[in-house]
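TL;DR need structure tokens for one chain.
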Amino acid sequence: MSRLNEKLLGAWSSPFTNRVQMALNLKSIDYEFIEVNFYSNKSESLLKANPVHKTIPVLIHDEKPICESLIIIQYIDEAWTKNGQSILPSDPYDRAIARFWAAYIDEKWFPLLKELGKESGDETKAAIVRKIFEGVGLLEEAFVKCSKGKEFFGGDNVGYVDIVLGCFLGWIKVTESMAGLKLFDETRTPGLAGWAERFVSHNAAKDIVPEPHKLIEFYMMVQAAKASTG
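>> reply
TL;DR here they are.
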């Protein structure tokens, strides 16, 4: 069996790893997946590949490491232009808008879900929930504008923003289950609700987005490990 040129250092539970897997799937690129323990005992291969941030994911292409998930997706799109569709829009304005919403999701919206999981005070939790739903409203508007009446943020096909938001769908389900919320509601946000169902069924994502119950088990295991170490 020939060795694959492409290797992906990551973890099945990491949405940032998942989004790179989705991008590779969209481009029909074969790769070797190397599971990395990113909570403790980080491997020498990871520290060597990403000595600055020491985080996953890392794509190794022709023995050269590329780090940070958004950068990796853009690299995949530019390095394999002949493989399938373009992930980022070809129009410069649409491309800028896609990058804007990707940054919003990563820097502003998803961190609120993580913050909600750590908070115990009722008033603070309520304030975070309000911010989360404000963000959901913005993302619904973004979907309507970016999709232009079609099935995905990328139009007819899964694109950059689809991958960036879609990789979180497993963890969104976990948040809904643990906090008793419904974030992408068919009545309040019909665009996002329909999009989420289509996205998890897409070939690029259907075997990648983790099942919520597995993520909950993983989360509980990590919390228990943290508690045992003080």
